[in-house]
Amino acid sequence: MKGSLTKYLQWFIGASAIVMVAWALIDSDSRAHFLTGSGLASGALIAAISLGVVITYRGSGVVNFANSAIAMYIAYVYAVLRKDGDLFLPPLPNPFALVEGIVHKLDSTSTLDLPDWPTRISFGPDMQFWPALLISVVFALLLGLVLHFFIFRPLRQAPPLAKVVASIGLCLYLPAVIVRRFGIQPFTVQSIPYFKVDRPVSLPLGVKINADELVLTILVIVLTVALYAVFQLTRFGLATRAASENEKGAVVLGFSPEFLAGANWIISTLITGVLGIFAATVLRTIDPNVIPALIIPALTAALVGSFTSFGWTTFAAMVLGMQFGLVKYFEAQHHWYPKSGTSIFPGMERVLPLVIIVLVLFLRGKSLPTRGAISSGRLPFSPTPPRWAIRYGGPALALATAICGLFIFGPTFRLALANTLIGIIICLSIVVITGYIGQISLAQMAFAGISAFLVAKLTTQHNVPFPIPIFIGAVVAMLVGVLVALPALRVRGVNLAIVTLAFAVAVDKAVFGNQSVNGGFVGAPVKVPQLISQPRDVQYKILGIIAGDGKQPNPMTAMFCLVVVVILCYAVANLRRSATGRRMLATRSNERAAAAAGVNVSGMKILAFAVSAFIAGVGGAVSAYRFGGVTPDKFNYVQSLTFFAFAYLGGIASVYGSISGGFLVAGGLVFTFLSEKLGVPSEFTLILGGLGLVVASVRNPEGIAGAVRQIGMNVRRKRGSREGPPEGVAAGAGPSPSTDTREVGAAS
Amino acid sequence: MKVRSYKLVASLIVLSLGASACSETKKAETTTPGTTMTTEAPSTVPSTGETTTTVVDAGAELNAWALTYTGGTAGAASGDSIKVGYANDENFFPENTIGIESARDYLNAELGGAAGKPIELVSCSVTNAEDGAKCGTQFANDPSIVAVITGTILVGNKELYDTLTGKKPVIVGNGVTSDDFTTPAGQAFTAGSPGVIAGMSGYIVSGLSPKPKKVAILAQNNPAGQAAVPLLIDPVLKKAGIESTSVFIDDSASASDVQAALKAAGADTADVLLPIITIQQCINVYDAVKSLAINPIVVTTGLCFGTPMTDHLKEAGEKGPVPEGWYFGGYGYSYFNPDLESGMQTYIAKVQQYGKPAPGAKTLEYTGFAGPEFANLMTFAKFVNTSKGAVDFATLDAAIRGFKGPMMLQVGPLNCGKQVILGLAFFVSVCAAEMGIQQLKDGQWVSIADGLNGKPIDVTKVES
């Protein structure tokens, strides 16, 4: 009965979608805004990114979140070659500069000036089209090789999480390099010769499109057909398809999955690069925002095509591109369009990809296919917090932090401490959802923002006293988290990452961008109790000792954050030690085995999402009180990606890892140290964060916490080998697969 | 051993990146056979293109104007420096820094600094929300910093102002977010975005002939953009019986998206197109207008000025720095028609003399926000000169809040803290209420309603 109802619903949704598209094409007003040259061009831009995503996935099993960033980067290479004749280089570490810095530090009168690394290689004042294209294509080829050999080949047998993390690292790193080199201002892209850019071409049904937009659209369609043919008809394509469905089978048939993956990476980067260059030409200018933002609709399109069908992917991309004009037309011209106060409801065009994703997941009827890899690697080890750490280590760390915050740190580091503490809260929320239960959520800052904006409303409009709004905000975030968890019951791994990222974008644009939420000109202030108000020059007398230096920020702000962090750290540590935590880990290790052992897998996932969103909600609320107001920029989807990066870098599977992650966040203690003591500008946060993420995913998937734990184990092992094996060492000997298996048994 | 060496290498990489981050800003050039390797920092804003203006007299007359304005003494400054905090988003708006640093160098070299002492800028770049609090804390806690001037900051504004309120006198620079115009921390000696946008609405209603019937509005999809349309544009147009349709676009909207948005807003049938957007989207609007083959009257802001637009027009085969025929709202004077009385001639001569291109840029960008930022530091020097060197908080704060003008490069009198724009009293940091409209017509800049032709638009008189 339940199955047939689902089937009817699937048919109903499918039929409704067809009727809506048909109506958009038949109704003359709607058609005029749906079937347009700009819509086709927009769709072609999205398809240009999504085709690369599909090739990469088919070839190597990597859903490349960085594909749009790669397209943007190669387009910059081309644009700069054309305009200035320069091949720009990313920032490189310069050991000479270190020597120079030390000498100047020791002797301030020194005039030592050692050579700098070049930032660009100049080929002359400017460059013609063909040489620029050739160099860009060679660059794309090399980039594809580098990505394959140095990042994704070592990760071939890693779990999806590690691959997602590496691609997110690239997604953060590449735009950060561009910002460092060229700033954020638009960079003019010289047109491709042989066709005039501003001459409109008339197509059937009254569609007018610019010549270059038409060329891009045709190029995308031709490539789609060509890729379809290659993957259907050639030996290489058939081998790739075989490997993508079952690597073991492909090996048995004599194909090398490694070779196929490498070749597909090169093809993907080449196609992405060339299409990126054409896309930049259509856009006329390029900046670090526009092309990277296309990744969300591109992933949506790829999801519609199940990451395998080039035709469906391109079709979905075209529809996503064309819907923009239609939604804007409804927004501007129709009274029934949702309103928020006197203004229109913003960001609906960004909500649509989320709706499509949810519908696709529903219509599929089963979770999307995953690759049959030769072997799948383990997720980072999630150690049980030792008793000594809970009894003595935690309190000692908290006490040391309090002493630093109250008596030792100056204003800059006090501020950094508060940033770190809030970062720890967000990282803790990621530890629960990703570290404990293996679900990849890229929407943590959306949950935090929902709570933060609610706190602003509760304190200013309803006078709800501190600290009640923190709980209300966190509970509402938790309820939203439960809603987001529903798709998680049908998908996991990378597909869930896409769902949550689309959710984060939709919330960012439609909720936080909403005037009735963000307050427009007036903003969203928060009434903060004087005791914890940050901009106060105060000192306190604690046990006869003066705390604080009488300068901003108020040391009690950081103490307030510290109290919340301590409570949450203990809660999350105890969750790991509890039977529930073990059930979560069992679910993470193997859902089927966990279910067979009596674990309610769906319940565990919903619980994990709820707990995680609750913690993120607390983080948002604490941030709101700390800053005395809420602005959308703190909670946008890029922030979600960034926090995910730092949580992974710190160590995604333990409380200690989230503490390490908190140290690394923007404005946290590590970057403040780098900035204050070594002069690293704050824009290096994303460069180092992104690069660190890529390196960590390849070299050290357990992050800083895992590395520290490993060092500790090595020391104990060495001592043990001298003194003989102490009891219990084997049990704590690290990430053996049997650890999780034992936990399943315990949980059941 | 292997692990240890990895860690050593990793530590060295971080340390050297930090060090090279600084060293990259130094410019040096080495030549290798066949190719040139240039070691310079990023190009953020390449050039102003070919539309520079030659100032007739860069000599005594200009200095005389500046000395009269600042109340300073001719000659170089000497002695202990007066420190001024300066916060700006260097990634997005490096031209602010060009303006303020030129003013500093000019003041120190020729106008006796501030009360005879050299002015030193303590710079702090705000590129994320955490930076706002950090810069504010740094300034607020440093007793040697006597005042703070902001540039243009997109995030972290509230945190910056909250830390400075009541601690340091603040001159709000070229604000673009809501917090810049509603903060009690300081005052902006310009009409700001609220004044300019309301003035543009007023111009559409009463300045255009024949009176338009339909206006298409394209605004940025952010809190300020969303608030501006219903509060500063719609009421004015509605009162005049003009139909308006607005569409909001993201920063990341592509050229195709902008074209679709314009179509949705009815730009193809509208008499006037009013884009309140950043320069990236201005470029897209220019392309979309051409692609759609429509010809509405375009009224926009000075945010559409700048090198990227000039470069793009050059690529499209046009000659001017901005699209021909467009109307631009601003603070009432023109970079392209510099006059002596407003200080524009002095500014242009001195920014060309003292200004340095943004790191890595090939030529000097001095339009956009550079001018008002130059004027802000000149005005700060005026306050210090007037107070005979007193730089305590009370004196400077009172001078800032009590300043009635005239303000360099801004038309009209100032009424700090008391401006009511279209019946809205919450723009407490906006001091000026007059703005100007100029147009590029047949390759020439024409004063439509501004300080140059004595017909600036008084925003307080715009009806809504």
From TrEMBL, chain A:
<feature type="transmembrane region" description="Helical">
    <location>
        <begin position="351"/>
        <end position="368"/>
    </location>
</feature>
<dbReference type="GO" id="GO:0005886">
    <property type="term" value="C:plasma membrane"/>
</dbReference>
<feature type="transmembrane region" description="Helical">
    <location>
        <begin position="9"/>
        <end position="26"/>
    </location>
</feature>
<feature type="transmembrane region" description="Helical">
    <location>
        <begin position="421"/>
        <end position="454"/>
    </location>
</feature>
<feature type="transmembrane region" description="Helical">
    <location>
        <begin position="62"/>
        <end position="81"/>
    </location>
</feature>
<feature type="transmembrane region" description="Helical">
    <location>
        <begin position="388"/>
        <end position="409"/>
    </location>
</feature>
<protein>
    <submittedName>
        <fullName>Unannotated protein</fullName>
    </submittedName>
</protein>
<dbReference type="InterPro" id="IPR001851">
    <property type="entry name" value="ABC_transp_permease"/>
</dbReference>
<dbReference type="Pfam" id="PF02653">
    <property type="entry name" value="BPD_transp_2"/>
</dbReference>
<keyword id="KW-0472">Membrane</keyword>
<dbReference type="GO" id="GO:0015658">
    <property type="term" value="F:branched-chain amino acid transmembrane transporter activity"/>
</dbReference>
<feature type="transmembrane region" description="Helical">
    <location>
        <begin position="493"/>
        <end position="512"/>
    </location>
</feature>
<feature type="transmembrane region" description="Helical">
    <location>
        <begin position="645"/>
        <end position="674"/>
    </location>
</feature>
<feature type="transmembrane region" description="Helical">
    <location>
        <begin position="32"/>
        <end position="55"/>
    </location>
</feature>
<feature type="transmembrane region" description="Helical">
    <location>
        <begin position="129"/>
        <end position="152"/>
    </location>
</feature>
<feature type="region of interest" description="Disordered">
    <location>
        <begin position="716"/>
        <end position="748"/>
    </location>
</feature>
<feature type="transmembrane region" description="Helical">
    <location>
        <begin position="556"/>
        <end position="575"/>
    </location>
</feature>
<feature type="transmembrane region" description="Helical">
    <location>
        <begin position="259"/>
        <end position="283"/>
    </location>
</feature>
<feature type="transmembrane region" description="Helical">
    <location>
        <begin position="295"/>
        <end position="320"/>
    </location>
</feature>
<keyword id="KW-1003">Cell membrane</keyword>
<dbReference type="InterPro" id="IPR043428">
    <property type="entry name" value="LivM-like"/>
</dbReference>
<feature type="transmembrane region" description="Helical">
    <location>
        <begin position="164"/>
        <end position="184"/>
    </location>
</feature>
From TrEMBL, chain B:
<feature type="compositionally biased region" description="Low complexity">
    <location>
        <begin position="30"/>
        <end position="49"/>
    </location>
</feature>
<protein>
    <submittedName>
        <fullName>Unannotated protein</fullName>
    </submittedName>
</protein>
<dbReference type="InterPro" id="IPR028082">
    <property type="entry name" value="Peripla_BP_I"/>
</dbReference>
<feature type="region of interest" description="Disordered">
    <location>
        <begin position="28"/>
        <end position="49"/>
    </location>
</feature>
